[in-house]
Amino acid sequence: MHPLRKLIQNEDLLSHLAQTYGTPIYVYDLGRITENLNRLETTLSSHFNRHHICYAVKANSNPHLLTEMRKILPNIGGDCSSPGELFVTEKAGIDPTRCIYTGNYESTYDLKIALEKGAYLNLDDISSFKRLLMVGLPDRISFRLNPGFGKGTFSQITTAGENAKFGIPAEKIIDAYRKAQDAGIKQFGLQCMAGSGNLDEGYFVELLRAIVLNTKKIENELSIRFEFISMGGGLGIPYKDEETPLNYDRLFRQLSKVLYDGYADQESAPALWVEPGKLIIGDAGFILTQVTGLKASYKNFIGIDAGMETLMRPALYGAYHRIYKVGYSGSNNGTYDFTGPICENTDRIAVDRPFPPIAEDDLIVIMDAGAYGYAMSHNFNTRPRAAEVLLDGDTHRLIRRRETIEDIFSGCDV
Known about the structure:
The structure is a single chain. The chain starts with a helix and ends in a 6-residue tail after the last helix. The chain has helices at 5-8, 11-21, 30-47, 63-72, 83-91, 108-117, 126-135, 173-182, 201-222, 248-262, 278-281, 313-317, 405-408; strands at residues 25-29, 51-56, 77-80, 100-102, 120-123, 140-146, 168-169, 187-191, 226-230, 271-274, 285-296, 300-304, 323-325, 334-339, 348-355, 363-366, 387-392, 395-400. The chain is globular, with a radius of gyration of 22 Å. It has 414 residues and is of the alpha/beta class. Helices cover 32% and strands 23% of the residues.
């Protein structure tokens, strides 16, 4: 059963949220965020001598959520990919020096900002290092390894292998560190983010073996020691009832064996860094939306006020999100496509989905939208973006107001 299933059956609460803030809205449950972070921290602490969690800001950059994460884990860092993500981590009180900055095809402007903030620069290519030298030289650096293989829920989010635009091929990675060493850098890490949304524990074991194999080669060749190795993110969550969540304890126990088989002296072994986003915020957020119309055509359609501009993942990847009728746990009576108000035929939140009896103005929830939901929402058809609300037990507060049409055009007042 979904961890928020009981919450979304609370018809009184969700109706109150809809009346208070309107629809569609993104709703985040602080209790679930806390549970996710504490479970991750506790398990890492029990299996690794040293570790560091950098939250993947790209998943959801609301500063109120980042502030709450910092309160739960004061030492949390950020995985940042842009100056804007560095800005919001600092706004939330997260020390930029605890953040890793991983761009790709970075401009000198981006590199200058990351350098000035003191983030741990993780470069995507040797050419990135050449651009970095134009703006300055950091005390520490890491490079992103492409181990030649990757795995993701969809081909579009497989971020390593021969078709990926990311990282340095394994056969070229030593040369990158040699250039950094020759430039005078003495502190090093290595990062490898090979895919997103994975639930296969064996894949992570294979990935860490490949990382350790490469770090040992680099250390032996160049006589350097790595401060950390990062597996990036990629830790998935179930989007379907039949999917099994990752067993944190079993996974990190296996990963610690891989790391410490490669580095027998655990005290001097590199720290393990992880950069989760979806694992922390994904199943803690949902979209509350209202039925605007029902249509019996060649197919049966349920029209809602949250379309592909509110949640892009189904149109972009064909991603599956569970959908529930608020306050209802009975049987289904038909099969429907769920569509929003956007004038594109790809505006489908779900296709051929069994669903219970439904009427106009009913409330439904789209689950597991905490990660890459609001962050990927947009203004197509000149529709304002949704509001965001944080739940803490029985209390709730607005953490981002609903955008207005005037907001969309405010940048045109020049």
